[in-house]
Amino acid sequence: MTNALTLSGQSIDRVGRSQALRLRPTLGVAILATLLMSLPNLLDPMVRHDDFPALFSEPGPFWAKTLNEGRWVNYLWHLRGVVTPAWLNFAVYQLLWASFASAIAVAAIGQRDDKWYATVLALLVVTAHSATAMSLWFNTLMPGLALVALYAVLGIFLSQRAHRTLLPPFVILSFMAYTTYPLLLLAVCLVSTRKRSVADLIGLIALFTLSFAAAVLTVYTINLQVHGIFGVPLADWRNALPAKDVAGLLSNLPFVLDSLRLFVAGTSYNIDVVAIFHLVVLSLSTLVMIRKAPLETLYLYAGILIGLALVAAQNLKLGVIVPPRAFIFAWVFYVVLIVRAAQYLSQSSGFAGRAARNLALLMFACHFLMNVDQYNYYRAWQNETRAIAENIAGAREPVLIKGNVLEMPSAKAAFVQNNEALLHRIRQVANKQAILCEADPESCEKIEAKWASRGTETGVIVEVNAN
């Protein structure tokens, strides 16, 4: 005898159709929320200086990251030879994130006829602070996120066995796009499991562990064949302190604590009260889930602990701080706990259920508004640099830039980290070549001397300052 949760071919078709129907409205709301949240950054999105090669489809500047970061999927994306506008790339990236959020939300809620919870869960995933931070590298990360979103959507239509069979190749490919993307794939598998058991959890963890190890080995092997180095040596700018023995591992312990602290601070938008709020909500949701669904809680916490262990291993072995955006998996597991706890409370307690539902909506509203505000940080830089580029659109090349770009108030507000950001921005808007005189004073002097020898000024000098 079969039912909606069995894995027979007939029930799988019925489950797939049922979940597909639930995906459509959830996806529609998630896309709308994502685009509204991104509105300040939608028409002229902020592009980080090391994301411009992907925008321009130029593999040369990205080549070093194949060795230093193992980003081979991203490198292949740089070879595509087709340049599309930044606004289109950003919109597609955000649509992919909304698709992942919707698919994992529907998978987590499962066959329960609770569209409201699936929609709210998708909205909470969409508004992750880590996701907003990562979206500033949308040109580079687009292929990796496409893999993650595809795997999440496939989880709705495929049987559990078929879906898990695809885990190893998806882990390997997504790892070569961003190191912690595989943890999002693991999250999809964990929340979509219907017949949970300790044996099943152990098997899934073993499959993921072997897949992740295969991903690391694949990157190391490719680097050996191409670069002659078996491994992923970090770039000098990271100032890494690789551990060579137990003492080195222990000395790198502060990197683990600092990474966690930065993640909590970032997720809380550097507001201590918000950080305390999240810790309290996590604790209460965990207590509810342990009481109502202990095995499901075990699955979720297994994913969290595996992710934290992998990040900690990177901290200890490499001696670096992992940025808050890499913890995006932790937010996904966290909000699944919150919504599932609210769902269980609604079944057994009217007041507690209403309070939990209202709390989830409040969290979404607050994070939505904070993310809108974060995207607004970049408007001054985008507007000022666009004005500079448009003003020199008719000038001869090269354009000379004098002054420290990083001292511009708009650059500070947008957390610009490299003077070259203005060069790329001028190229993006005006398609003009520019030179930073502060970085290359000799070239600027020669060019100005050449202009002077002609008796008339034939070039344009852009002065940037802190005023």
Word description of this protein:
- With 467 residues, the protein is mainly alpha-helical.
- 70% of the residues lie in helices and 2% in strands.
- The protein has helices at 9-37, 39-42, 52-56, 63-68, 72-78, 86-109, 115-126, 129-134, 138-157, 160-165, 167-175, 181-192, 198-227, 246-251, 253-267, 272-292, 294-318, 328-348, 350-376, 379-391, 409-413, 420-430, 441-453; strands spanning 399-402, 434-436, 461-463.
- A three-stranded parallel β-sheet has the order 2-1-3, sandwiched between helices.
- The chain is globular.
- The N and C termini lie far apart (76 Å).
Features:
single chain, 467 residues, mainly alpha, three-stranded parallel beta sheet, 3 strands, 2% strand, disordered N terminus
Helix-strand pattern, N to C?
A: HHHHHHHHHHHHHHHHHHHHEHHEHE
Which stretches of 5+ consecutive residues score pLDDT under 50? 1-13
Looking at the structure, what is the overall shape?
A: globular
- Measured on Cα atoms, how large is the radius of gyration? 24 Å
Total of DSSP H or I helical runs spanning 4+ residues: 23
Tell me the helix content.
over 70%
Rounded mean pLDDT is: 91
Strand order of the largest sheet: 2-1-3
- Main beta sheet: strand number and arrangement? 3 strands, parallel
The end-to-end distance, rounded to whole angstroms, is: 76 Å
By DSSP, the count of extended strands is 3
Strand content: under 5%
Structural class: mainly alpha
Write the layout of secondary structure elements.
Layout: H1 9-37, H2 39-42, H3 52-56, H4 63-68, H5 72-78, H6 86-109, H7 115-126, H8 129-134, H9 138-157, H10 160-165, H11 167-175, H12 181-192, H13 198-227, H14 246-251, H15 253-267, H16 272-292, H17 294-318, H18 328-348, H19 350-376, H20 379-391, E1 399-402, H21 409-413, H22 420-430, E2 434-436, H23 441-453, E3 461-463
Parallel strand pairs: 1-2, 1-3
Helix pairs in contact: 1-6, 1-7, 5-9, 6-7, 6-9, 6-12, 7-18, 7-19, 9-11, 9-12, 11-12, 11-13, 12-13, 12-17, 12-18, 15-17, 16-17, 16-18, 17-18, 18-19, 20-22
